[in-house]
Amino acid sequence: MSAVSVSAESLVSITAAGAPAAAGRPAPLRLTRRGRFVFLGLPLILLAALLMSLAGFLNAPAKAADSAADISLTPAVTVTVQPGQSLWAIAGAVAPERDPRDVVADIVQLNNLDAARVLPGQQLFVPTK
After folding, report:
1. pTM, to two decimals
2. Rounded to whole angstroms, how far apart are CA atoms 45 and 49?
3. N or C: which end of the chain has fewer CB within 10 A?
4. Which position has the higher pLDDT, 24 or 106?
5. Smallest Cα–Cα separation from 103: which of 82, 128, 80?
C-alpha cells in the first residue's frame, strides 16, 4: 500500500456556498431570499406600521364637540331623589310642557346614568329648559 502525504498548504476548505476559503478566515455570509426578507424586510414593515400608527395618533385632532354650537351649556338645577320617586316623576315635575321621555333621556345623559334607575337621596342634575 502506498502512503499519501498531503501538506497543510495544499488543503483548501470548502464553504457552505461552495467557494474555497483560506484556512483560518471565516467564510462570507450569503443570505437566501427568505433570509434577506427576514433580515431586512420584516423590520422595515414593522417600522412602517409603527410610523403610520404614530402619524395617525399625532395628527388626530382632539375633538370634544363638532362646533361651537354643541358646546352650549345646559342650564340645570340639582334635585335630590325622594323615596318612591322615579325619573319619570321628576321629569313631569320639572318640565311639564315637554315630553317626559325626552326629559328622562336628558337627565340620563346629563348625569351619565347607566339606566333610568335612581336611589333615594341621590343628587341629580336636571335640565331646566
Report:
1. 0.44
2. 6
3. N
4. 106
5. 128
Percent of the chain clearing pLDDT 70 (strictly above)? 73
**101 residue type, one letter:** R
Q: How far apart are CA 104 and CA 90, in angstroms?
A: 8
Tell which residue, 115, 106, 108, 121, has the closest CA to residue 75: 106
- Using alpha carbons, select from 100, 101, 92, 90 the residue that is nearest to residue 125: 90
Sign of CA dihedral 71, 76, 81, 86: negative
For the purposes of burial, counting CB atoms within 10 Å of the CB of 110, is it exposed (0-12), middle (13-18) or buried (19 or more)?
A: middle
- Count of CB atoms situated within 10 Å of the CB of 107: 24
pLDDT (tens digit per residue) in 4-59: 555 544 444 444 555 555 667 888 888 898 888 888 888 899 999 999 988 888 87
